[in-house]
Amino acid sequence: MSAATLAATRATPWLRQTVARSGFAVLLLIVLLTVNVWLYPGRFAPSGWGTVIGLAAPLIGAAFASTPALLGGRGGIDVSVGPAMGFVNAIIIKGLVMGLGLSSPWLIVPVALALGGMIGAFNGLLATVIRIQPIIATLGSYLILTGLTLTILPSPMGVAPAWLKALAGPWAILPVGLVFVTWLGLRRLPFYDCLMATGGDDRAAYTAGVPVTRVRFLSYLLTGFYAGAAGLMLTALIGSADPATGPSYTLIAISAVALGGVSFRGGRGGLINAGIGAIDIFLLQSVLTYLNVSSFVLQIGYGAILVLAVVLTALQERLLSRRSAHGA
Amino acid sequence: MAHRRSRRLDPGQVRILGAFAGAVLIHCVGILTIDGYGSTFALRSMLVLASLLAVASVGQTLVVIIGGIDLSIPFLIGVANVVAAQLHGDGVNFALVCAFVLVLCFLIGLANGALAQGLGIHPLIVTLGTGTIAEGAVLLWTHGAPSGSAPDAVANFVSIGGSVGPIPVPWLVPCFILLALLIVLTLARTPYGRRLYALGSNPTAAPLALIRPVFMWALTFGLSAVFAGVAGILLLGFTGSAYGDVGQPYLFQTIAAVVVGGTALVGGRGSYLGTIAGALVLTELNTLLIGLGLQAAAVQTALGIVIVALVSVYGREPHVRTTI
Questions:
Q1: Count of CB atoms within 10 A of residue A195's CB?
Q2: Are B31 and B37 in contact (CB under 8 A)?
Q3: Maximum distance among all alpha carbons in chain B?
């Protein structure tokens, strides 16, 4: 890469980089948002934004949570995000609210984050220190967490405190926004550069002195914290404890992240890509629900969009690289 | 003496032997702790269940060796299961039904492999997408309430109570052993097998040796889908009626069987023998835990712990510093 192109890459604003990486997903977002506003003028009016964001929040949170582990590369992935959300949901409602009668946000929020962090640390330990292949390590956590959740909470029960429910209503932007702000902060730390370097080429990063194992461990820890936050968003939305909802978020979050343009080979993408992908899927669900189609059509539509999006993004990338090759 | 022996076995063989030893160990624990665990009936049902899992895992093994992963297997199992039952219920000849279902699966698999390799998309995403579409389409076609059943021939073929002459196992088990032999031979002795390992271990060098990556990926994912289809039809015989989500437990079980069997998810390494050992371990474990009186939820937790523990004993990956 010549000095001129390097300077040009540096000068590219991050927004443009994101658009280039997400490609199709951004276009889809605009189209779907327009269609949704047209279909539901009331729901998408400013007064309804809180509720809409609250509805989308668990999926966005799950997609956020899936991202850091993927960025670390070499097969890094966390399939236990969904069950972790369900576990946090169960512990908060069944353990804290119903069991101990505690409902203060100053207690519930730290507990949720700490639980997520513990799960993340466990996954990180397995995937980076013990070095089990990440998909198997987190699959183990998936099974353990799903089983524990069902043991603690055999059936749906309980009621969430009012302040938590408000986080899926008027204050819905707060949890999603806070998670995103922490990411923006992290982007300014050396950790972020080390993570992207590790994900891009771990051998080169290791030779350059990046503590690859520690960086990857931290990426799982971060995924865990975000999963804890997503568990709070899920609890806020359903307003009770439900053992069945959590695990279903894993695959849909992976789809959202892929749709948004986070590379599964590591080192490329970020939370904004994950967010765009998640909002795409949410808006698509919303449109198809309006059309009152069966859940099977919803399933087909969502699979088709996923395949179409990644195919179009790949074609676009190919076209761009060919053009730049000609330019040079 | 032991030292010399360990030198002769490569790590892959040690892992396979370890997995088989693990299965035997779990079986011994079962005999000691649970009445009737060693009975012929228990043994027969475990053999049948392990064979079904091993058939479903053939494709995952091939795909992992080439350096990919296939998440469409559970969906295609469901698709094959429902389509076969529905068409059979409509009075179509069952041989034709099977041919149609397997060709359908093969085409979906071809698309998976061609898209993933041709466009450089991660196979995890492509297969998740196509699997979702295929299952959605079939559920839409049957309005979510599939009907029909398996012909008696298939039901007898996989029935736990079936027997082959004097041997008290259904035809599934000997046929599976034959299939396993064929697959092991194909991997070790045919150009296809050599190319599979070559492409998996070095995707850059293999095309220089005139191995066509897109062709190999399409073919391998196609084969994976066909074996998922076979598993779906066999499961139709096993459960008796069609059920769209019949394949869902196989999503992670096929991956777990492959990895417990010592195949790394990095491509170029692995063997079908290992996967068979992995399928045996998983089936033994599941049976043991249920036999110990654990609830379904607790079985899941224990299975998770055991998979992690097993893999951390013999499935560890090298540190980055050793790969430079």
A1: 28
A2: yes
A3: 65
- Residue ranges of B 80-119 with Cβ closer than 8 A to chain A: 115, 119
* Chain B contact set for A143 (CB, 8 A): 252, 300-301, 303-304, 307
Domain that holds residue A268: 22-29+53-316
Total count of domains within chain A: 1
Cβ(B146)–Cβ(B85) under 8 Å?
yes
Interchain CB distance below 8 Å, A136 and B318: no
Nearest residue on chain B to A258, alpha-carbon basis:
B125
Domain assignment present for A17: no
**Which A-chain residues 215-254 have CB contacts (< 8 A) with chain B?**
251, 254
Q: What is the DSSP string of A256-290?
A: HHHHHT--TTSSS--HHHHHHHHHHHHHHHHHHHH
Nearest to A136 among B115, B132, B311 (CB): B311
Say if B15 falls within a structural domain: no
- A88 domain residue, yes or no: yes
Residue B17 forms part of a structural domain: no
**A135, A265, A296: residue with CB nearest B122:** A265
Residues 6+ positions from B247 with CB-CB distance below 8 Å: B56, B73, B74, B75, B76, B77, B78, B81, B228, B231, B232, B235
Q: Are A262 and A70 in contact (CB under 8 A)?
A: yes
Cross-chain Cβ contact B320/A315 below 8 Å: no
- B317 at A interface, C-beta within 8 A: yes
B122 contacts chain A (CB < 8 A): yes
Q: How far apart are CA B263 and CA B250, in angstroms?
A: 17
* Cα–Cα dist A92/A104, whole Å: 11
Question: Does residue B29 fall inside a structural domain?
Answer: no
Q: Which CATH number is B258's domain given?
A: 1.10.3470
pLDDT tens by residue, B169-224: 888 999 999 999 999 999 999 999 999 999 998 888 999 988 999 999 999 999 99
Check residue A25 and give its pLDDT: 83
Overall number of domains in chain B: 1
- Residue B317 three-state SS: coil
pLDDT in tens, A207-250: 999 999 999 999 999 999 999 999 999 999 999 999 988 888 98
Distance of alpha carbon B258 from alpha carbon B282, whole angstroms: 11
**For A307, which of B129, B140, B265 is closest by C-beta distance?**
B129
Minimum-distance CB partner of B300 among A132, A137, A147: A147
Report yes or no on A312 lying in a domain.
Answer: yes
pTM (2 d.p.): 0.85
A34 within a domain of the structure (yes/no): no
DSSP annotation of B250 reads H
Structural domain range at position B107: 38-306
Task: Dig out the tokens for A227 from the structure.
Answer: 């999963």
Low-confidence ranges of chain B (pLDDT < 70): 1-8, 314
The answer to whether residue B30 is domain-embedded is no
Tokens, residue A319: 């076209």
